[in-house]
Structure to design on (372 residues):
């Protein structure tokens, strides 16, 4: 018998030029915009902020990839100093994730460390409005209740999950993604594909998310190479942003699986971007997915036009190679004697057990060895 629960409290607005309507979604007149240096220096963040005529708008633009807890605390200080009533995160997952926790800390006390990664305090109900505007087509963070932060003190990156992180509004404008360089288009786009397939084969999968995930995978396969080859392709950019959104909604309900679990040490210890760290193990995880989800994967292969799981995995790998993405761990600098350790760290993330295959020290190490 099918049983599931589905919750999507964020308003989703997608369309070319949609950020011109930002003002109608804000609360109060003091707004903190959080972004990264590129989006500030390119003028993209200020162009969006210019739509908030009559408001006091401040910018915190020092967000780095895989944002640290220290950046979060500095941004929270800026929000408190402003008395922010709305926090707007503009950027990839890094800036959006920081905006989520800052919208909470703005009306609360203390440091992120008090609430996360060993901290014991619980966030008070959020009073500051949260709006997320993605500029990559990948993370889906604009529609999830997750933030991912790097605890530099412990040298680990881990997710923080709370219902306070559902954005009030996800505002998507495909034009914001035109400036993505090809390599970032590829890695973030394949991150979206990972979200979709991990929602689909997840032990906690459910019919609504399955439908979204299959469509997201179809869209990525159809449009990622065109977006990579021509960043100004209106159709490719729009369809990739839609794919990322659908995949985000899908995994926001199911969570992710082994691909994301193993990605964390590849990012913190080898410096791989999030999308690269995830997609490098994607073909290998597809190859073992029949172990616990054969019938479902057969249906997926049929829906996407492949005859078998191995053919599907080979096609995904070929697509990655066509976009100059690494497909071997050695390309990230990983050596044979590190595989046991990477497997061990990956196994420390509870989501790994949502993978449709036995996940233990031996099987995860073997999977990693198969792509060394
Ligand atoms: P990112 O936000 O770290 O940005 C990567 C790079 O792309 C940056 O240098 C940035 O300046 C640049 N960039 C962003 N938009 C651009 C644009 N339009 N044009 C040119 N350059 C642009 O990358 P990301 O992959 O979007 O986010 C990764 C982070 O999100 C990781 O920390 C990851 O763990 C997290 N994440 C969160 C969720 C979630 O649900 N909260 C889901 C997946 C990943």
């Amino acid at each position: 018998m099918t049983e599931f629960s589905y919750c999507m409290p964020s308003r989703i607005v997608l369309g070319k030029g949609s950020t011109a309507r930002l003002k109608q979604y804000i609360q109060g007149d003091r707004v903190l915009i959080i972004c990264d240096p590129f989006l500030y220096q390119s003028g993209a963040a200020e162009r969006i902020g210019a739509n908030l005529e009559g408001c006091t708008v401040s910018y915190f633009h020092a967000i780095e990839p895989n944002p640290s807890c220290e950046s979060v605390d500095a941004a929270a200080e800026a929000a408190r100093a402003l008395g922010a009533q709305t926090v707007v995160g503009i950027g990839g997952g890094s800036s959006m994730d920081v905006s989520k926790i800052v919208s909470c800390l703005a009306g609360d006390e203390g440091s992120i460390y008090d609430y996360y990664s060993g901290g014991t305090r619980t966030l008070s109900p959020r009073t500051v409005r949260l709006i997320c505007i993605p500029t990559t087509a990948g993370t889906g963070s604009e529609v999830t209740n997750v933030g991912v932060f790097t605890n530099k003190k412990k040298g680990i990156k881990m997710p923080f999950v709370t219902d306070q992180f559902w954005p009030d509004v996800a505002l998507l404008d495909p034009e914001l993604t035109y400036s993505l360089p090809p390599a970032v288009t590829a890695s973030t786009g394949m991150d979206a594909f990972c979200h979709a397939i991990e929602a689909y084969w997840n032990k906690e999968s459910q019919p609504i998310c399955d439908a979204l995930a299959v469509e997201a995978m179809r869209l990525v396969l159809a449009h990622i190479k065109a977006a990579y080859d021509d960043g100004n392709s209106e159709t490719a950019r729009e369809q990739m942003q839609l794919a990322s959104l659908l995949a985000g909604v899908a995994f926001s309900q199911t969570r992710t699986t082994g691909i994301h679990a193993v990605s964390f040490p590849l990012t913190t210890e080898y410096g791989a971007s999030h999308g690269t760290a995830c997609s490098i193990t994607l073909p290998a995880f597809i190859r073992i997915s029949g172990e616990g989800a054969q019938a479902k994967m057969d249906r997926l292969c049929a829906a996407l036009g492949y005859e078998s799981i191995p053919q599907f995995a080979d096609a995904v790998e070929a697509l990655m190679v066509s976009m100059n993405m690494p497909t071997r761990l050695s390309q990230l600098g990983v050596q044979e004697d590190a595989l046991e350790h990477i497997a061990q760290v990956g196994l420390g993330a509870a989501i790994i057990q949502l993978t449709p295959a036995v996940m233990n020290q031996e099987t995860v190490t073997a999977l990693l060895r198969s792509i060394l």
